[in-house]
Design brief:
Blueprint: E1 8-18, E2 21-27, E3 41-44, E4 48-54, E5 58-63, H1 65-70, E6 81-86, E7 105-115, E8 118-124, E9 138-141, E10 144-152, E11 155-160, H2 162-167, E12 178-183, H3 185-195, H4 207-212
Antiparallel strand pairs: 1-2, 1-6, 2-5, 3-4, 3-6, 4-5, 7-8, 7-12, 8-11, 9-10, 9-12, 10-11
Length: about 220
């Protein structure tokens, strides 16, 4: 589990392909690896990846063919810059929102507007994800926890502050860039609850069940 608060930028230094999978080595730059062990998880521009080897200033992960095909990791090359975040500890501050590191889809940047020190992006996501993205809700973009400003059909707008532009890869994305998207965990479970039915065919979550529980108008 992660928070979507990027700890450091890394650089891909080596990619070894093996069939449809790959082993990737990342120069961790400013990311402190002193407390990292084999088997630990690190979010790399969104996807949660497992450390299979590490040195003082670099670590290596195995990436499955599924992850390569369904995220932007498959398009990365040697020298690509990536966002890095170590897994959340129970004692850490939750500065962003709960992020699982499981990418739901890839979006495309359709507009970038520079507004003084800020940048406004319009992102177009896969149509099947649109229902999970809400105004003022949370979304992870390349592993960065962000707030949705507004939504329209299959697209949404986000406003990026100077700190995020400087400390993550978001500042380098342009119109046409592809980005990893992870919807809010709560949205996933709400959909599951609303669509699930008991053995008698009744829904676990409905307007009637919410009313009985004390929610809604009095």
């Amino acid at each position: 589990m992660f928070t979507g608060i990027v700890e450091a930028l890394g650089e891909i230094s080596r990619i070894d392909h093996a069939g449809d999978a790959a082993r990737i080595t990342i120069n961790s730059r400013d990311l402190d690896l002193d407390d990292v062990k084999l088997g630990d998880s690190i979010a790399v521009s969104g996807p949660c990846l497992t450390v299979v080897d590490f040195e003082t200033d670099a670590f290596t992960v195995d990436v499955s063919g599924e992850t390569l095909a369904r995220t932007t990791i498959g398009s990365k090359t040697r020298g690509s810059t990536v966002n890095l975040e170590k897994a959340l500890r129970l004692s850490d501050r939750l500065g962003g929102h709960l992020v699982s590191g499981h990418v739901d889809g890839v979006g495309s940047v359709v507009a970038r507007n520079n507004l003084e020190d800020y940048v406004q992006f319009q992102i177009e996501g896969p149509p099947e994800l649109a229902k999970y993205i809400a105004t003022k809700g949370s979304i992870a973009l390349d592993g960065v926890s962000l707030t949705v400003n507004s939504v329209a059909l299959n697209s949404f707008d986000i406003m990026i502050i100077p700190h995020t532009l400087e400390r993550t890869t978001i500042g380098a994305i342009r119109v046409g860039s592809e980005v990893n998207l992870e919807i809010d965990l709560v949205a996933r479970y709400l959909e599951r609850l609303s669509n699930h039915t008991d053995d008698d065919g009744s829904a676990d979550l409905s307007l009637n069940s919410l009313s009985r529980a004390g929610f809604g108008e009095n």
